[in-house]
Design goal:
The structure holds 2 protein chains of 2 kinds. Helix content of chain A is about 30%, strand content about 20%. Chain A is α+β, with helices and mostly antiparallel strands. By secondary structure, chain B is an all-alpha fold. Chain B is elongated. Chain B has one domain (about 5-145). Chain B has helices at about 5-35, 40-70, 70-90, 110-144. Classes of the chains: A alpha+beta, B mainly alpha. The interface between A and B is medium-sized, with 33 and 21 residues.
Chain lengths: ~850, ~140
C-alpha cells in the first residue's frame, strides 16, 4: 500500500495506469492532456448516436384544417387557475379528462410509481388542452434520488441532463427516441464556492476522477470511485477535516459535501508559470468605423472600467488599430505621449518594436488614458475605406504569442484587403427563400486556421461586429469559435441613428470588460463507465476525445455534449458525470473547478419519459440542428427537428399509454415539446420564408450554440406577461419590496388585448407592447406621458417615477433582470409603429404566411405519426 | 512468355498497390493515435492531409494505365473506388490546402469512426487487389 499511497504525490499520469511509479521517474509533460490526467484507455468507439433521420416533409401551407371545436374558445384565462394540474378543460370534455385523471391515479397506485412520476407521466391530449404553459417559471425535473444525495447534487443551472433518468442500455434509449446529452455552464458566476487548499488533490488512480460527494467510503481508509468502481486509498491528509477541525471523518470534508468545488492546483498542473492577464484591443478605424461612432463609446467605456479589468499588478494591455494599414502604439512608461507606429506592408506584417506595445497597465496607466482620450479624434478625417482585418489579426497573434491572453476585435465592415479578405456572398433577393439557404459555412479557412494557432498559444479572440452591411459573419465567427472566444453582433450600429444599439453596446462592454476571466484553460468531462461522449457543442477546440482546449473561459458561455451508452449500465443504480475545468485565474492562480452530477439509472421506458427535461432536450436539439444545417442543409435540419417530435411521440404511443388516442397524447413531462420545437423552427437561425439577413441568421446560430440554457430558452420561447393589471396575489416579498408575479402567457395574439400592456422577455431584448386603448393611468404613472398618442415611437427605458404603479413595474422588471449578466435592450412598442413586427415575430403560436400556427403544427405531427 | 504492355501495367500496379497499402496502414495508425490521445489533431491533420492527393492520383494513374492496356475487368473493379474518391474529395470541408481532414471536426466521434472504417476497408481492398494484380500479371505473362 505504501507504493500506492505515494502516487497521490505525483499527479502526472500519462493517460494510463501503467506509469504509477515514483514521481522522479515520470516524464515531463509536454501538453495539457497529460497534465490534467487521462481518461479511460481502450474504450472503443460506439455505434452511431441517436441522431434524427432526415425525411421529406410536405411543404408548408398546403392544408389549412379547421380548428377542433373544443380548442377554439377562450377568453383570457382566469388569473387564478390552478397551476399544477395544467389545462383548463372545456365543459363538454369533462368526462374525458376525468377518465384520464382516474387512470393516472390508478397507475400511480400500482407498481410503486411515485407520485412525482405519476404527475409527469399523466397523459395530456395536446389537441384539447389549450393552456399547457405553466403560469410561472418551473424548475427542471428533480432526479429521483434519495434526499441526501439530492441535497448535494449539482445545481441544475450549472449542469443539466436531457434525461434525468438515464436509460440502462442503448436499446432503451433508442426506444425512447430522445437525445441524451448534458448542458453545462461550468464557469458561471457563483455566490458560494468552496475552495479547497490541500496539498494533495484526491483523485482516482485509474480514471483520474476527482473525489466528489457520490463516492462510497468502504471503511476509514479506502473509498470506491463511482465512475470506474476502483477502490482507492484515502491519503492521510484527507483524514483531517479543516472545517470542523476533527480527525477521522473523511466523509465530512468539503470536497465530499459539495458537488461544486474549486481546488487550488499545485505546480503539477502547470505547464508553464501562470500567465498574467494580457488584453489586446484591435480596433477598426476605417471611414465606416468612424462614421458609426463606436470608437467614442468604446474609449469612454474602457476609460471608465480601466480599474476594473480583472487582473493584478502584472496585467498588460495593448492597442492595435487598422484600416488599410496596421498601426501599433508605443506606450513605454517614460514617454510624454503615446507614439503611433504604422506598418504598411500588410502582406508580411511584422512587429515594429519588441516591447512596449503590450505594456504593464499599472505603470503606463497615464499613457493608456491619454491614448484612449485621443483615439477618437485621431481618425475623424480619415478617408480610408478598406479594411485589412486579416493582417491585423496576424499582427495581434505575433504580439500575443509569448504570453497568451485575450484579443478583442472590433470590426465594422467586410475585410477587403490582405490575407483573409472576403467577398460579399449574400444575395438580397434570396433572403426570404423557402428553399435552402446558402453560405452558412465559412468561405475560407484563414480564420479557422488563425483561431487554431491562437488556441495553441492560449490566445482567445472575441469578435464585436458592428456593421450595417453584409460582413460574412459565417467566416469571421470562426476566429472566435475555435479559440473559445465570444461573438457580439450589433446590426446597423450607429451612435446617432440607432441609440438602442449604442446603449446596448455600452452596457455589454461594461459587462465584458469587468467579468471574471480564466486563461489557458482545459476542460474534461468524465462519465460513469458505459457512457461516452461523442459530440461537443460550443466555442472551444476539441483536443482529444474528451478534452476541450479553451484559451479563455468566461462566465457567460455554455456548452453542450451528446452522449451515447456504450456498455450496459445494468449493474449500477447511479450514473455520475464530472466536469473539471483547469484554468489560471486573472490573479495568476491555477485553479480547478469541479462539478459533479449524479442521476439514477432506470430500466423502464415510462421512467425515462417521466424524467425528461424538456428545456434541455430543446437546447440540445437546437445545437444538433445547427450542426446539421451547416454540414448538410437548412431544410434537412428543419425536417430533422420535426421528425424528432414525431418519433418521440410515436414511441410514447407505441410503448407507453394504453388509451386509444383520438388526439395527440404526450406525457405531461413532454407536453411542451411540440411548442418548443415550433418556436425553434421560427427562430432567425432556422426559419425559412421570412426575410432574414444572412449575418443575423448566422449570429442567431452562434448564439444558440454558445449561450447557457436559460438564455437560449428565453430566446426561443420568450416569456410574456401582462403588466398593466398586476396584483399582489402570490407576490414575492423580498428585501421589503413586493414583487408581483404575473402569470406567463402563451405566445399568441389571442392573449393580447387592446386595453393591456404586455412585457415580452426575449433574453437579449425586452419589448413592452401597449394596446391602442391601453389604460391611461398606466401610461401616465409608469411611462410618464399623458396619453397613448403622445408616446414617442422609440422609447428605450422606463422612467423612474414615484408612483406606486411605476415602483411595482420597475420592481418586477428588476427582479427579472436580477441574475442576468448581460442586460437586454429595452423597447417600448406601440401598436401602430413599424417596430411592432419584431414584437409579433416572437408570437410563435400564431400562423404567419410561411409557417404553421401551433394548432396546425400539432395536426401536422399527428398526420406524420399516422403514416 | 511475352512481355506485353498489359503485363507491364500489372507489374507497375503491383508496386504501386504496395505503396497504397502503406498509405492505408498509415491512416489506420494515425486515427488510432488520435483516438487514444497520443497525438493532437492539428499535427495529425498536417501529416495526413498531404498524403491524400498522392494516394488518389496514384489510383487514377493506374486506372488510366489499365484503360490504355484495354484490361476492362480490372478497370471495372477499380471504378467504384475511383468514384468514391471523387465524391470524397468533392465533399471535403472548406480548406485552402489539399486534404480531407479538418482538425476542428475530426475529433467528432462519428467522423473519427467513419475514417477508421474507411481505413480498414481500403486496406482490405488494396490487399485483395494486390493479389489480384499478381494473378493478373502471371496470367497475362503466361497466356500470350
Amino acid at each position: 500500500y505504501a507504493l500506492f499511497t505515494c502516487t497521490y504525490k505525483c499527479l502526472y499520469v500519462s493517460g494510463d495506469s501503467s506509469s504509477t511509479t515514483t514521481g522522479s521517474a515520470s516524464p515531463v509533460p509536454n501538453s495539457y492532456e497529460y497534465v490534467e490526467g487521462g481518461g479511460y484507455s481502450g474504450t472503443s468507439l460506439q455505434s452511431p448516436p441517436t441522431s434524427v433521420p432526415a425525411k421529406q416533409a410536405p411543404p408548408f401551407g398546403y392544408n389549412y384544417p379547421t380548428m377542433h371545436p373544443a380548442y377554439q374558445q377562450n377568453p383570457a384565462p382566469r388569473p387564478d387557475s390552478s397551476p399544477s394540474h395544467g389545462g383548463y378543460n372545456p365543459p363538454g370534455y369533462q368526462p374525458y379528462s376525468q377518465v384520464l385523471t382516474l387512470l393516472s391515479s390508478a397507475l400511480g397506485g400500482l407498481g410503486g410509481v411515485s407520485e412525482l412520476e405519476a404527475e409527469t407521466l399523466r397523459p395530456v391530449n395536446l389537441l384539447q388542452e389549450r393552456n399547457i404553459l405553466p403560469p410561472k417559471y418551473t424548475p427542471p425535473p428533480e432526479p429521483n434520488l434519495s434526499n441526501d444525495l439530492r441535497k448535494v447534487n449539482c445545481s441544475p443551472d450549472t449542469f443539466r441532463c436531457t434525461l434525468t433518468n438515464i436509460p440502462q442500455t442503448q436499446a432503451l434509449l433508442n426506444k425512447a427516441r430522445l437525445p441524451l446529452g448534458l448542458l453545462l455552464h461550468p464557469f458561471r458566476d457563483l455566490t458560494q464556492l468552496p475552495v479547497i487548499t490541500s496539498n494533495t488533490i484526491v483523485r482516482c488512480r485509474s480514471c483520474r476522477t476527482y473525489i466528489n460527494p457520490f463516492v462510497s467510503f468502504l471503511d476509514q481508509r479506502r473509498w470506491k470511485r463511482n465512475l470506474c468502481y476502483r477502490v482507492n486509498d484515502v491519503p492521510d491528509e484527507f483524514m483531517y477535516n479543516p472545517v470542523t477541525r476533527s480527525y477521522g471523518e473523511p466523509h465530512k470534508r468539503p470536497e465530499v459535501q459539495n458537488s461544486t468545488v474549486e481546488f487550488i492546483a499545485s505546480s503539477d498542473y502547470m505547464l508553464r508559470p501562470p500567465q498574467p492577464a494580457v488584453y489586446l484591443f484591435v480596433l477598426d478605424v476605417s471611414h465606416n468605423a468612424v462614421e458609426s461612432g463606436y470608437l467614442n463609446v468604446f474609449c469612454q467605456s474602457l476609460l471608465d472600467n480601466l480599474e476594473k479589468l480583472p487582473g493584478d499588478t502584472r496585467t498588460r494591455i495593448g492597442f492595435v488599430t487598422f484600416d488599410s494599414t496596421v498601426h501599433f502604439y508605443n506606450l513605454q512608461e517614460g514617454l510624454s505621449q503615446p507614439q503611433m507606429l504604422v506598418v504598411s506592408d500588410i502582406d508580411d506584417v511584422f512587429i515594429p518594436t519588441h516591447d512596449n506595445l503590450l505594456v504593464n497597465l499599472k505603470e503606463s496607466k497615464e499613457l493608456v488614458k491619454d491614448l484612449l482620450n485621443a483615439l477618437p479624434g485621431m481618425f475623424t478625417h480619415t478617408r480610408e475605406t478598406q479594411s485589412a482585418l486579416g493582417p491585423a489579426l496576424q499582427a495581434a497573434y505575433k504580439l500575443m504569442c509569448p504570453t497568451g491572453g485575450r484579443v478583442s476585435v472590433f470590426q465594422t465592415q467586410l475585410p477587403t484587403l490582405g490575407a483573409g479578405l472576403l467577398q460579399s456572398r449574400e444575395d438580397p433577393n434570396l433572403r426570404s427563400s423557402t428553399k435552402n439557404v446558402q453560405h452558412l459555412g465559412p468561405a475560407t479557412d484563414f480564420y479557422k486556421k488563425l483561431a487554431l494557432d491562437c488556441s495553441g498559444q492560449q490566445i482567445g479572440v472575441d469578435l464585436f461586429l458592428l456593421s450595417s452591411q453584409y460582413s460574412d459573419l459565417a467566416s469571421l465567427a470562426c476566429v472566435s469559435k475555435y479559440s473559445a472566444g465570444s461573438v457580439f453582433y450589433y446590426p446597423s450600429f450607429h451612435h446617432v441613428h440607432n441609440t438602442a444599439q449604442s446603449q446596448k453596446f455600452q452596457k455589454d462592454l461594461q459587462r465584458y470588460l469587468t467579468r471574471k476571466i480564466g486563461f489557458e484553460a482545459v476542460m474534461r468531462i468524465r462519465c460513469t463507465k458505459g457512457l461516452s461522449i461523442h459530440t461537443f457543442h460550443g466555442n472551444f477546440f476539441v483536443r482529444s476525445t474528451d478534452l476541450l482546449s479553451l484559451a479563455n473561459v468566461n462566465p457567460d458561455s455554455g456548452f453542450a455534449v451528446q452522449m451515447s451508452i456504450e456498455g450496459s449500465l445494468a449493474d449500477t443504480s447511479l450514473a455520475c458525470f464530472q466536469a473539471a475545468l483547469l484554468y489560471t485565474s486573472s490573479k495568476g492562480k491555477r485553479r480547478i473547478r469541479v462539478h459533479t452530477l449524479c442521476l439514477p439509472v432506470v430500466s423502464q421506458l415510462s421512467e425515462v419519459f417521466a424524467g425528461a427535461d424538456i428545456q434541455a432536450i430543446t437546447c440540445l436539439l437546437a445545437n444538433m440542428a445547427i450542426d446539421r444545417s451547416i454540414s448538410s442543409s437548412l431544410s434537412d435540419a428543419r425536417d430533422a427537428l420535426v421528425n424528432a417530435v414525431v418519433d418521440c411521440l410515436t414511441a410514447y404511443r407505441a410503448n407507453g399509454s394504453n388509451i386509444q388516442p383520438s388526439g395527440l397524447i404526450t406525457p405531461a413531462a413532454l407536453r411542451l415539446f411540440p411548442l418548443y420545437v415550433l418556436a425553434l423552427l421560427k427562430q432567425k437561425a432556422l426559419r425559412t420564408g421570412t426575410s432574414t439577413r444572412l449575418d443575423e441568421r448566422v449570429f442567431s446560430m452562434c448564439e444558440l450554440k454558445c449561450q447557457p440554457l436559460l438564455q437560449i430558452m428565453r430566446m426561443a420561447h420568450p416569456d410574456l406577461y401582462r403588466i398593466d393589471n398586476m396584483t399582489d396575489q402570490a407576490a414575492l416579498h423580498l428585501n421589503e419590496s413586493v414583487i408581483p408575479q404575473p402569470h406567463l402567457l402563451q405566445l399568441t395574439a389571442e392573449k393580447l388585448t387592446r386595453e393591456g400592456a404586455f412585457l415580452m422577455d426575449c433574453g437579449s431584448v425586452m419589448f413592452l407592447w401597449l394596446g391602442k386603448c391601453c389604460n391611461e393611468t398606466f401610461i401616465r404613472d409608469v411611462l410618464g406621458y399623458p396619453n397613448y398618442a403622445s408616446l414617442p415611437s422609440n422609447m428605450t427605458e422606463i422612467p423612474e417615477l414615484q408612483t406606486m404603479y411605476s415602483e411595482r413595474t420597475r420592481a418586477f422588471i428588476s427582479w427579472l433582470l436580477e441574475s442576468r449578466t448581460f442586460h437586454p435592450a429595452f423597447h417600448v412598442v406601440k401598436d401602430d409603429t413599424s417596430a411592432k413586427t419584431s414584437f409579433f415575430q416572437h408570437l410563435v403560436e400564431d400562423r404567419t404566411e410561411s409557417a404553421f400556427s401551433y394548432y396546425e403544427f400539432l395536426l401536422h405531427i399527428q398526420q406524420q405519426m399516422s403514416k | 512468355m511475352a512481355f506485353t504492355f498489359a503485363a507491364f501495367c500489372y507489374m507497375l500496379a503491383l508496386l504501386l498497390t504496395a505503396a497504397l497499402i502503406f498509405f492505408a496502414i498509415w491512416h489506420i495508425i494515425a486515427f488510432d493515435e488520435l483516438k487514444t490521445d497520443y497525438k493532437n489533431p492539428i499535427d495529425q491533420c498536417n501529416t495526413l492531409n498531404p498524403l491524400v492527393l498522392p494516394e488518389y492520383l496514384i489510383h487514377v494513374f493506374f486506372c488510366v494505365m489499365f484503360l490504355c492496356a484495354a484490361e476492362w475487368l480490372t478497370l471495372g473493379l477499380n471504378m467504384p473506388l475511383l468514384s468514391y474518391h471523387i465524391w470524397r474529395y468533392m465533399s471535403r470541408p472548406v480548406m485552402s490546402g489539399p486534404g480531407l481532414y479538418d482538425p476542428t471536426t475530426i475529433m467528432n466521434a462519428d467522423i473519427l469512426a467513419y475514417c477508421q472504417k474507411e481505413g480498414w476497408c481500403k486496406l482490405a481492398f488494396y490487399l485483395l487487389s494486390f493479389f489480384y494484380y499478381l494473378y493478373g500479371m502471371i496470367y497475362v505473362l503466361v497466356s500470350s
